[in-house]
């Protein structure tokens, strides 16, 4: 529903398929799901996912048996070319679906929701990045998502690959029709992640006003 309200999903395709929610398969039970709930109302205000490989257990990125991640499919790229043919697919996770409740009015609480979602999501990332060759992949805009992830302390690498035309049969095809394009990225932990998250914790608990991006940028510059 949130994607339909934003015009990021095809309303006609969703209706034709009789969808009442985002389609998931059995693999989603292995994913990390982060939700942000507003204490005063109990309403769900934010959500994102860290998704595991859909391929067979034991597959490596260079294997024929590897089932491509969504970012590989959408950008026609091979993560094996960037992370290594022998990297276990189970050591790579895909970040998806960062969204804030479309109905929230403009307020400091609304500003904080994506950062609360990032906070829970990043904790899951810390758990999976301990494996050899581990990485988080996804896509986003350079001056928005990718910049924010860098300020959270991730070591970020943007992959400058050509944008493929959207498949008209894709439920999320309208998402590609935006003024600024997105790029795939790779995230690892360069030991700045935990300090930045501790700083974000303090910011979230303080209830202070102002830009989280600006405050995290100041923190990052001070700790270089």
Report on the architecture of this protein.
This protein has helices at residues 2-6, 11-16, 70-75, 80-83, 108-128, 142-151, 193-206, 212-222, and strands at residues 32-37, 44-51, 92-100, 135-140, 154-158, 183-189. The chain has a six-stranded mixed β-sheet. It is of the alpha+beta class and 224 residues long. Helix 7 packs across helix 8. It is built from eight helices and six strands, in the order H-H-E-E-H-H-E-H-E-H-E-E-H-H.
What about the largest sheet? Answer: 6 strands, mixed
Largest sheet: spatial strand order: 1-2-3-4-6-5
Beta-strand residue percentage = 15-25%
Work out the helicity level: 25-40%
Q: Output the number of helix runs.
A: 8
What is the number of E strands? 6
Topology:
Layout: H1 2-6, H2 11-16, E1 32-37, E2 44-51, H3 70-75, H4 80-83, E3 92-100, H5 108-128, E4 135-140, H6 142-151, E5 154-158, E6 183-189, H7 193-206, H8 212-222
Parallel strand pairs: 3-4
Antiparallel strand pairs: 1-2, 2-3, 4-6, 5-6
Helix pairs in contact: 5-7, 7-8
């Amino acid at each position: 529903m949130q994607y339909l309200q934003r015009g990021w999903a095809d309303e006609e395709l969703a209706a034709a398929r009789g969808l009442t929610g985002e389609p998931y398969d059995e693999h989603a039970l292995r994913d990390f799901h982060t939700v942000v709930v507003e204490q005063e109302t109990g309403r769900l205000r934010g959500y994102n996912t860290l998704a595991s490989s859909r391929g067979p257990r034991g597959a490596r990125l260079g294997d024929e048996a590897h089932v491509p991640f969504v970012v590989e499919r959408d950008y026609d790229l091979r993560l094996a070319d960037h992370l290594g043919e022998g990297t276990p697919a189970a050591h790579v996770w895909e970040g998806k679906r960062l969204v804030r409740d479309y109905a929230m009015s403009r307020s400091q609480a609304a500003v904080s929701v994506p950062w609360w979602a990032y906070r829970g999501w990043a904790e899951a990332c810390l758990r999976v990045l301990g494996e050899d060759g581990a990485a988080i992949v996804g896509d986003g805009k350079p001056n928005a998502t990718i910049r924010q992830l860098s300020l959270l302390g991730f070591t970020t690498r943007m992959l400058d690959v050509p944008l493929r035309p959207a498949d008209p049969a894709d439920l999320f095809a309208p998402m590609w029709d935006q003024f600024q394009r997105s790029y795939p990225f790779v995230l690892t932990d360069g030991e700045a992640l935990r300090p930045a998250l501790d700083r974000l914790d303090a910011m979230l608990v303080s209830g202070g006003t102002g830009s989280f991006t600006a405050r995290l940028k100041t923190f990052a510059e001070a700790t270089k």
